[in-house]
Write a structure and sequence with these properties.
It is a single chain. By secondary structure, the chain is α+β, with helices and mostly antiparallel strands. The protein has 2 domains: 2-112, no CATH class; 121-345, Fumarylacetoacetate hydrolase, domain 2 (Alpha-Beta Complex). The protein has helices at residues 29-32, 47-52, 60-74, 129-138, 195-198, 214-221, 283-290, 312-315, 317-320; strands at 2-8, 17-22, 25-28, 80-82, 90-92, 96-98, 101-105, 110-113, 121-125, 153-155, 161-162, 168-169, 176-177, 180-186, 190-191, 202-209, 212-213, 235-242, 261-266, 269-275, 295-296, 300-303, 329-334, 338-345. The strands form 5 sheets. Strands 1, 2, 3, 6, 7, 8, 9, 10, 11, 14, 16, 18 and 22 form a 13-stranded mixed beta sheet that branches. Strands 12-24-23-19-20 form a 5-stranded mixed beta sheet, with no helix packed on it. Strand 19 (261-266) and strand 20 (269-275) form a beta hairpin. The longest helix is centred in the N-terminal third of the chain and has 15 residues, at 60-74. The model has no long low-confidence stretch (mean pLDDT 94).
Length: 347
């Protein structure tokens, strides 16, 4: 499934709710839940509730049941038109109602938000050797030996999450940068998780842009702490939370890595191109380390770190024409996960 958080025109952020993105529309899980579950009418369903699950049976598996119930009610044929948002796709010609509720919505009538607008936490790792080596080489440094002994991370600001097509307010920096990443979202509670069980704790993957103010980051890290304010202002997630079954065809023979092409464009020009399978550490190792002596909860986000060549810091501003500026549009595209797009605006 491709799980989303969305709202419709005229609705407030408090009315945002969970849905499932289909090739031709969006299933409103909140409106459609009574088709599959008793006593669900009028109950709010957001992404965190799906991830946590509850006694009603609502969960990620329950979301699949709701989608199947909607498709069974709709039948095999729906009226579609060319999708204004994607010329290569189709969209519903109009909403489809059952029992007075709009259960299936055209994609053009919903605004996608970050799949998890307020994650429980965000840990961002540092797992691509090329990124670590190149970034440190620019500073006249080598990769620290300790980097090869454990997958290190820092905590980011889980209250500064923005979604697809949201504006990024230009922070107080002269060196604004993007970072091309993928994040996994935890779907089960666990502590001291073993590597051979770790993948069972992943709810899905999404694209992540770890925006960075490089001048501020360099200053604060020279003290021996951080990054903090250099990353504090925004992190983008989206457009959807994609479950692992959607990505089976991209796994390696061992089933512990995903061969997903990762591309970054600025104003339509390709800057970065890498692959998620190049991670030095596996997702199982990341989850095992993150859960060591601490409990992970549904809705925790774990970032991969920047893919090799996945930021201006590595590429150098001289090579690409400078750091990011207001009015620049940054697009991150990852195979199977979609496109995460944001425009930088004056703060």
């Amino acid at each position: 499934m491709k799980l989303i958080t969305f709202k419709q025109s005229g609705e407030s952020m408090r009315e945002a709710r969970a849905g499932v993105l289909l090739p031709f529309g969006v299933v409103d899980l909140q409106a459609a839940a009574p088709l599959a579950f008793d006593d669900m009418e009028g109950q709010r369903i957001d992404m965190l509730r799906l991830l946590e699950g509850d006694e009603s049976g609502l969960s990620l598996d329950g979301a699949a049941e709701i989608v199947n119930a909607v498709l069974e009610q709709v039948g095999g044929a729906v009226d579609v038109v060319r999708d204004d948002l994607d010329p290569d796709a189709v969209d519903l010609a109009g909403s489809i109602s059952i029992g007075g509720y709009d259960l299936l919505l055209p994609r053009s009538e919903v605004r996608l938000l970050a799949p998890l607008p307020r994650p429980r936490s965000v840990r961002d790792f540092f797992t691509f050797e090329q990124h670590v080596a190149t970034a440190r080489k620019h500073r006249g440094q080598e990769v620290p030996p300790a980097w090869y002994t454990m997958p290190v991370f820092y905590f980011s600001n889980h209250q500064a999450i923005i979604g697809p097509d949201d504006p990024v307010r230009f922070p107080r920096t002269e060196r604004l940068d993007y970072e091309l990443e993928v994040a996994c979202v935890i779907g089960r509670e666990g502590r001291n998780i073993e590597e051979d069980e770790a993948l069972d704790y992943i709810a899905g993957f999404t694209i992540m842009n770890d925006w960075s103010a490089r001048d501020i980051q360099a200053q604060e890290m020279s003290v021996g702490l951080g990054p903090a304010k250099g990353k504090d202002f925004a992190t983008s997630l989206g457009p959807a939370l994609v479950t692992l079954d959607e990505l089976d065809k991209y796994t390696n023979d061992e089933g512990d890595r995903w061969r997903l092409d990762m591309i970054a464009r600025v104003n339509g020009r390709e800057y970065s191109h890498g692959n998620l399978a190049a991670m030095h550490y596996t997702w199982a190792q990341i989850i095992a380390h993150a859960s060591r002596d601490v409990t992970l909860y549904p809705g925790d986000v774990l970032g991969s770190g920047t893919v090799g060549g996945g930021c201006i810091l590595e590429l150098t501003p001289e090579a690409v024409g400078g750091w990011l500026e207001p009015d620049d549009v940054v697009e991150l595209e990852v195979t199977g996960l979609g496109v995460l797009r944001n425009r930088i605006v004056y703060g």
